[in-house]
Amino acid sequence: MKFSLSDDQIEFGKVAGQAFAKRSGLEYARGALDDSDLPFPTGEPWASLGVMELLADESRGGGGTVLDLVVVAEQSGKHLTPARLVSFAGRAVTLLEALGSPEAVTLLEAGLNGGRTVAVADSTRDSADRLRLDPSGAVHGRTAPVLDGVAATDLIVLAETDTGPVVVAVEVTSSSPAVRRVDPKPLDATRGLAVFEFRGAAAHVLSAGASVVPAWDRAKNVALVLLAAEDLGAATQANELARAYALTRQSFNRQIGSFQAVKHALVEAYVGEEQLRSLVWLAAWSADAQPESLRLYAASAAAYAADVLNRSAQTLIHTHGGVGFTWEHDAHLYWRRAQVDKELLGSAGSHRRTVASLNLDLELTP
Amino acid sequence: MDISDSPEESTFRVTVRQFIEDNLHSLVSSRGASADNVDTLKHAQSVLYSGGLVGVTWPKEYGGAGGTVVQQLIINEELDRAQAPRLIGWMGVGLCGPAIITHGTGEQKSRYLTNILTGEEIWCQLFSEPGAGSDLAAVATKAVPTEDGWVLRGQKVWNTGAHWSDYGVALARTGSPEDRHRGLTAFVVDMSAPGVTVRPLREMTGHAAFNEVFLEDVELPANAVLGEVGQGWAVALTMLMNERFVVGGDGSTYGAGPGALTSEVRKALPQLSESSRELVLQEYAACWIEALACRMTGNRLISRVSQGGEPGPEGSVGKLALGALLKRVGSLGLSLQGETAVFAAAPDGTNHWQNVAMFAPGLSLAGGTPEVMKNILGERILGLPPEPRVTASPALTTSPTASRDGA
């Protein structure tokens, strides 16, 4: 048993962290709150790290593991960088590689070389609006909020047909009246969330048949692991900011970190962070080495991550007192991230339901 | 990262599983330690020792196998799997033995260590006192030098297994109370020595696992000192760190593993309303996930230690989380029993969840309260400033609970 990162992974994380620090999402998040027309950042100073293609086939410059990408995602989460790791590097790349059709590979390569900006969309939870492909090859329905959707040129969706689900790609940049993008003012601008409505939008089939659902599920679970990893990074950073302030700020002639009331809250946040790190690494390991456990461990990590980041962001605000509640301080940017992330790719409650039903059905024990 | 067994670990696991299976009869003939089955449990430990399953991490020269902590984890997992009871000598093997290896004289090592492993002699910890629990530096038991040794006077409490122990490691004051932890010395106490009285304390579970120990002019030879005179705190720290490792990091879940919870949930679901069902599933999943996190954080610690690190304050993470989890699991398990939850046992005579719920508060307190664990983590890992120390004054030394060190 070796339950720790390799030296290479630790080094990779450091280098990635430095690259993300150069384009921290904090500044953009703050700017977007005041100016809702601020363009979503797309230039990627970290492109040379080989991050986006990490999960692609070796022939496309990939050959990395989900755990490698988790190490990077922890860093993007730390800086709240809109790095498209969850939506593209994790989910779209995994999905398109698994589908493997010429159409899928063409889109994947266009996404990797920067020609297209690809994101993956889920159906809305409302059954009346579910995504459907009609016999003429057009898509109807409404998506759930799409991660990095505001910058997408192409969306991959799982659409229902009379003969079973198919995976299709829809161009969303055209001014076609069949595609409507709704992007209301976001709670956390760094997620680039948008909702799409399709009324007969032209679609290209990427793959159909029995294998599309397992491929779709695996890609979504990989995305969940990466989302949890970004939450881990954000929680770690929130805890560090709170700790640093508790060492600096004096009250009653003492550093506030010496008060048990403050110290113990910081420790509880830290314990959550350490427990979450174990779950994220376990889930990433299962994605790479034990795929049959991925669904259970990804749901476990994602549900736990939602709670941990929520608590860490809350502790960050609380430790700062009134200062932490102001517009100027960064604390609310972490709080925003926490509120939004717990609703992405399924709610924390839905992930707990998955964990419960898998265990009750399969009688697994942790 | 590879969380699964290496080929060597896998071979080791097969050997361990086979040995347990071959000897299962003598191992599970008695579940749970009580004063009535000490001999059975001692025999079980000697059987396990003969298979190399006790003290696997101890150096070979002291009767161990010079193995890895991962091997110890595998042994624990396989014993859990077989539902074998915990070693009756776990305190000697996990806490006292390592302290003797680190701080003991050659004579002490050759006299005690092998018998600790075989289960021939059982050891306990004589640390806490009515006025010195989590604040261990407030120990008041006195050791007074005599011509050829020492005399011990005082009272100890919360001493797990003292009523079936042959030896204990006692912490006693050899300096002045103002010296706090600098005036302490550790002693090996023969529990059958004149003046040692052990009185079992009944816990809220209804069982008695720990005790009060009265030390009335107990005469000890000079070679009973463990470590140096005045250096008892170092011995205590070795034992406490190992205790937190054993309690929070060795993969044991003390009934918090939701295995039993799963069948309870499955049984209860059909009788519940839809809204109750949702609440139960959410809480069940939350417990399951937290238990998984506890086990994996323990495994991470063990993996780190196996690569050359020492068990450190990180053990407190596991102890904190596990203590909180067991209360939550016990509470859910009990609530699933419906009306039966208010009775000491179900109509069929089983009382598993009643026991878990009643045992849970104890696990939080054992080895230091959650607040003390949080101080340790806050100060040693997060680097936060300590609580202000109260200056020792005559008025305060008579009331040790008024001062705080964070033992």
From TrEMBL, chain A:
It comes from the Bacteria. InterPro entries: AcylCo_DH-like_C, AcylCo_DH/oxidase_C, AcylCoA_DH/ox_N_sf, AcylCoA_DH/oxidase_NM_dom_sf. Gene3D superfamilies: Acyl-CoA dehydrogenase/oxidase, N-terminal domain, Butyryl-CoA Dehydrogenase, subunit A, domain 3. Pfam families: Acyl-CoA_dh_1. The keyword Oxidoreductase applies. Keywords: FAD, Flavoprotein, Oxidoreductase. Its cofactor is FAD. The keyword Acetylation does not apply. Residues 226-356 form the Acyl-CoA dehydrogenase/oxidase C-terminal domain. Belongs to the acyl-CoA dehydrogenase family. This is Acyl-CoA dehydrogenase/oxidase C-terminal domain-containing protein. It comes from Rhodococcus pseudokoreensis.
Automatic annotation (TrEMBL), chain B:
Residues 6-120 form the Acyl-CoA dehydrogenase/oxidase N-terminal domain. Keywords: FAD, Flavoprotein, Oxidoreductase. Its cofactor is FAD. Residues 387-407 are annotated as: Disordered. Residues 124-218 form the Acyl-CoA oxidase/dehydrogenase middle domain. Residues 391-407 have a biased composition (Low complexity). Residues 230-382 form the Acyl-CoA dehydrogenase/oxidase C-terminal domain. InterPro entries: Acyl-CoA_Oxase/DH_mid-dom, Acyl-CoA_Oxase/DH_mid-dom_sf, AcylCo_DH-like_C, AcylCo_DH/oxidase_C, AcylCoA_DH/ox_N, AcylCoA_DH/ox_N_sf, AcylCoA_DH/oxidase_NM_dom_sf, Mycobact_Acyl-CoA_DH. Belongs to the acyl-CoA dehydrogenase family. This is Acyl-CoA dehydrogenase family protein.
